[in-house]
Amino acid sequence: MEYIDGPTSAMSQDELEQELLRTMPLSFPCLVYVAYSGNPNAPERLVFTSHKQVAEWAAAMGLT
User: Fold this and answer.
1) What one-character-per-residue DSSP string does 3-48 give?
2) Distance (Å, rounded) from C-alpha 10 to C-alpha 16?
3) Can you give the pTM of this predicted structure?
4) Are 36 and 46 in contact (CB under 8 A)?
5) In this structure, is the dihedral angle defined by the CA atoms of residues 52, 57, 63 and 64, taken in order, positive or negative?
6) Could you tell me if residue 33 is left (phi over 0), alpha (psi between -120 and 50 degrees) or otherwise beta?
7) What number is the average pLDDT over the span 35-54?
């Protein structure tokens, strides 16, 4: 996992990877992104998005 022109992280790369392994869902495929709180002292949150949710968004945008 690498940051590319993103905000400064309150968590180290190792902490983010440990959180990813701890919270990853049982079903795949999925997308994951780091949600920043905007507070430099608050930890980031990993958000997982399921294949079903992505398909629903694509359908809503007429991309299916």
Assistant:
1) -SS-PPPSS-HHHHHHHHHHH--SS-SEEEEEEP-S-TTSPPEEEE
2) 10
3) 0.58
4) no
5) positive
6) beta
7) 82
